[in-house]
Amino acid sequence: xxxxxxxxxxxxxxxxxxxxxxxxxxxxxxxxxxxxxxxxxxxxxxxxxxxxxxxxxxxxxxxxxxxxxxxxxxxxxxxxxxxxxxxxxxxxxxxxxxxxxxxxxxxxxxxxxxxxxxxxxxx
Length: 123
Prior knowledge:
This protein is α+β, with helices and mostly antiparallel strands. Helices cover about 45% and strands about 35% of the residues. A 4-stranded antiparallel β-sheet has the order 1-2-3-4, with helices on one face.
């Protein structure tokens, strides 16, 4: 009955397999954590972009003449601040409108910037 003695795994084989499994699981969890962080950042960029588009739309329909500068706080993404500027462009009768939304993610400041041109009022 020699087959009974040789059946099964040795302690070394079990420890080695457990170590390989632990390394693989650690790598998968690290990737999962990184993907969640990236997804969170993408969501904040999307919210900041929507805020910038909203501010830009208000500027385009406002009766402001360049140069001007406006700023405010936004709840989307939380804690974000925006700044809007209107300046005379390089071409006569054309204004350049710029909106910047700044927000913090993982301790770093991030920003979304939009810029467009508009024919000056009364041209």
